[in-house]
Amino acid sequence: MLTWKNVLHFAQKGNPEPTRRVEKTEAEWQAQLTPEQFAIARQKGTERAFTGAFCESFEAGIYNCICCNEPLFDSTIKYDSHSGWPSFTQPVAENAIKYKKDTSFGMVRVEVICNVCDAHLGHVFPDGPEPSGLRYCINSASLQKH
User: Could you give the 3-state DSSP secondary structure of residue 109?
Assistant: First the structure.
């Protein structure tokens, strides 16, 4: 189980190796994604709180990356954080997510990115429920459910 200590280690010292890599040009991503998905997943945007398709959805399934279809999160570790975005306590695999220090907007946060295609997913915070204490705060537009 990943903890905040693991997240900080990855963000500072390097991320685990992905299972594969998917790389496309900006034009290829733009052709594949909706304008909202492209703005969020490829240009590090954020959807407005409480507007995402998966914010209040708790149906069983696996949440995959909208860009490369890599499995990222399982519905069994999704919870209602009341933050306005889908929240999870763990990724499906340690190497599913890439962690990057984010100092945008005058804040210090840890950005979470798909480790396979570098799609922006959201951020992770150390204020989630036990036992991990993690809250992966993810944009619905970066996900597709299977």
Answer: strand
Please name the amino acid found at residue 97: I
- CB atoms under 10 Å from CB of 128, counted, come to 21
pLDDT in tens, 66-98: 999 999 999 999 999 999 999 999 999 999 999
Distance CA 118, CA 121 (A): 9
Distance (Å, whole) CA 136 – CA 139:
10
Q: Answer yes or no: 137 catalytic.
A: yes
Q: What are phi and psi of 48, to 5 degrees?
A: -65, 145
Domain ranges of the chain: 4-145
Q: Which two tokens stand for residue 38?
A: 């492209």
Q: Would you identify the CATH topology of the domain 4-145? A: 2.170.150
pTM above 0.90, yes or no: yes
